[in-house]
Amino acid sequence: TTVMYMMTTLLWNKHTSRFMLEGQLIETTWTIAPAIILVFIAMPSLRLLYLMDEIHNPAMTLKAVGHQWYWSYEYSDFTKLEFDSYMIPQDENQASTFRLLDTDNRIVLPMNSPIRLV
């Protein structure tokens, strides 16, 4: 019965009101208030995200550049140590290695120390 009343009211109502033709103040309030609320919600999480991003004095920096068929690596903390890493052809793989995952020059990184990868 309530649904039927609402439907008939909507059909027979002219949808006009003398007092609500324009509501600039309420529309502005409805626009600005949620924006302010979202800013207050986002500020603590953005602060935490920014604080988590800091890395304190990495022991090593590794720059990796992907080319079409190989990878280039550069240890910039040392005297410009750089090398290319190509995939080993399928006919040269041994039975104990993973297929299409082994390379001729592997990356060597230290354990339990902060490393920056660029």
TrEMBL record:
GO terms for cellular component: mitochondrial inner membrane. Its main location: mitochondrion. Its cofactor is Cu cation. Keywords: Copper, Electron transport, Magnesium, Membrane, Metal-binding, Mitochondrion, Mitochondrion inner membrane, Respiratory chain, Translocase, Transmembrane, Transmembrane helix, Transport. Binds a copper A center. It is found in: Mitochondrion inner membrane. GO terms for molecular function: copper ion binding; cytochrome-c oxidase activity. InterPro entries: CcO_II (IPR045187), CcO_II-like_C (IPR002429), Cupredoxin (IPR008972), Cyt_c_oxidase_su2_TM_dom (IPR011759), Cyt_c_oxidase_su2_TM_sf (IPR036257). It holds the Pfam family COX2_TM. This is Cytochrome c oxidase subunit 2.
